[in-house]
Write a structure and sequence with these properties.
Structural class: alpha+beta
Strand content: 25-35%
Distance between the termini: 56 Å
Order of helices and strands: EEEHH
Length: about 120
């Protein structure tokens, strides 16, 4: 007799990550994907609000290794089809400006960059 199984699929929301960090302990890798969005609320006394959202993905070490292999393969396939992935020009320019700011005004806050 065949047993029937009910399957419910809960698709997660799409998430754009501006930054990521990866940490580990002996049992797990923790990939923390962050979305940073500036918001201006006209009702607020302050000028701007920063909204920070996190999506945490935890992998056992073996699965992290499999994930790395899969990501390497997908990037190679992408570059084969669309060309080498390069840093966007706008990001290069802001990093260049930021570097000049650091040299000319030590102690000032730097502009954050993606994944770096």
């Amino acid at each position: 007799m065949e047993e029937k199984i009910n399957l419910n699929i809960n698709d997660g929301d799409a998430f754009f990550a501006h930054q990521a960090s990866i940490n580990f302990n002996p049992a797990m890798f923790f990939m923390d994907f962050k979305n940073i969005t500036p918001r201006i609320d006209e009702r607020s006394q302050s000028r701007a609000t920063i909204v920070l959202k996190h999506n945490l993905v935890m992998l056992e070490p073996y699965h992290a290794l499999l994930f790395r292999g899969l990501l390497d393969k997908v990037i190679k396939d992408y570059e084969k089809e669309f060309g080498k992935i390069q840093k966007p020009q706008a990001l290069k320019e802001i990093e260049k400006k930021n570097k000049k700011r650091k040299m000319s005004a030590p102690g000032k806050a730097s502009i954050p960059t993606y994944f770096g």
